[in-house]
């Protein structure tokens, strides 16, 4: 039980150390509500991954409206999986790298 508390405390310390910094996440870091979102906002590499993933996802969604439902469902499933990483930056990096590769391959095939 102490690990989650320590992880939350660590993420909050990171967030407090850089007040007003919202790096480049694809969402408003001031509204980050989960530990995973806070960690993504506090880590520049994860923020960049998040921006890149968002751009590719939105491009695919716009280019192929007939497949939008399937894409949205797969993204929701991925987000649930990503969130299991919690504050583990390595796990989050791997999750983003895998999803980016998957979406980039889908983007090229269209």
From TrEMBL:
Residues 29-100 form the Lysozyme inhibitor LprI-like N-terminal domain. Residues 1-24 form the signal peptide. Keywords: Signal. Pfam families: LprI. InterPro entries: LprI-like_N (IPR009739), Lysozyme_Inhibitor_LprI (IPR052755). This is Lysozyme inhibitor LprI-like N-terminal domain-containing protein.
């Amino acid at each position: 039980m102490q690990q989650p508390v320590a992880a939350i405390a660590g993420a909050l310390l990171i967030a407090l150390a850089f007040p007003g910094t919202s790096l480049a996440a694809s969402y408003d870091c001031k509204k980050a509500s989960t530990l995973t979102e806070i960690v993504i906002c506090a880590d520049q590499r994860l923020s960049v991954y998040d921006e890149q993933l968002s751009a590719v996802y939105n491009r695919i969604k716009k280019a192929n409206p007939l497949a939008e439902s399937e894409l949205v469902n797969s993204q929701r499933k991925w987000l649930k999986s990503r969130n299991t990483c919690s504050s583990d930056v390595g796990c989050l990096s791997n999750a983003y790298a895998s999803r980016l590769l998957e979406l980039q391959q889908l983007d090229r095939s269209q």
